[in-house]
Amino acid sequence: MKIKMLIMDVDGTLTDGKIYYTSDNMEFKAFDVKDGYAIKNILPKYNIIPVIITGRKSDIVIRRAQELGITELYQGIVDKLPLVFELENKYHLEKEEIAYVGDDILDIECMQYCGYSGCPIDAVNEVLQTVDFISQKQGGDGAVREFVEKIVQRNKM
Fold first, then answer.
1. Quick count: other Cβ atoms within 10 Å of Cβ 131?
2. By the 8 A CB rule, do 98 and 84 touch?
3. How far from each other are the two terminal CA atoms of the chain, in whole angstroms?
4. CA-closest candidate to residue 50, choices 38, 33, 62
5. C-alpha–C-alpha distance, residues 114 and 81, integer Å
6. Span 76-90, pLDDT tens digits
7. Residue burial 8-24, b: 16+ Cβ < 10 Å; e: rest
8. Of 17, 61, 69, 110, which sits with the fewest C-beta atoms within 10 Å of its C-beta?
9. Range with lowest mean pLDDT among 1-10, 18-27, 126-135
10. What does the DSSP assignment read for 60-128?
11. What is the pLDDT of residue 118?
12. Which residues on neighbouring strands pair with residue 6, listed in sequence order?
């Protein structure tokens, strides 16, 4: 079955997992342009819906999602699987048509449920033992791009 939706975690997946604060409480995160290109340009070409589900809340993530054309953005979600079920129903998908990329314990339930799962090479050990695909890149350094390319190859088979 072809992948029709890609659900992504943010911290440690789309970013390197580091959160920078300035003395005046400004927050910084770094995103990789290669990941952004894949989300904005490659996924739509193959009719794959990009989704972000993250445990934290940040205006930075809202801005990044807007830049990339991601309309399905959910923040502050600790128990992510019920939302995956909702998205599956909303878009009339089978679980095999959903891919999930993440890096930590909160992502494992979704990874086990979805049809195809991936993670950056620097994900926690429990995730590395769970996923179908381990990127050779670290989170925030092109891991999502590599996963997207793998999904596209898989969809072409």
1. 23
2. yes
3. 10
4. 38
5. 10
6. 999 999 999 999 999
7. bbbbbbbbbbeeeeeee
8. 69
9. 18-27
10. HHHHHHHHHT--EEEES-SS-HHHHHHHHHHTT--GGGEEEE--SHHHHHHHHHSSEEEE-TTS-HHHH
11. 98
12. 50, 99
* Phi, psi of 66, rounded to the nearest 5 degrees: -65, -45
Amino acid in the structure at residue 26:
M
Mean pLDDT of 105-132: 98
Q: How many helices (H) and strands (E) does the chain have?
A: 7, 8
- Helices 105-113 and 81-90 cross at an angle (nearest 10°) of 40
145 close to 15: Cβ distance less than 8 angstroms? no
CA 8 to chain centre: 1
pTM of the model: 0.96
Work out the percent of the chain whose per-residue pLDDT is above 90: 92
- Cβ atoms 48, 76 nearer than 8 A: no
User: Which tokens sit at 76?
Assistant: 């502050």
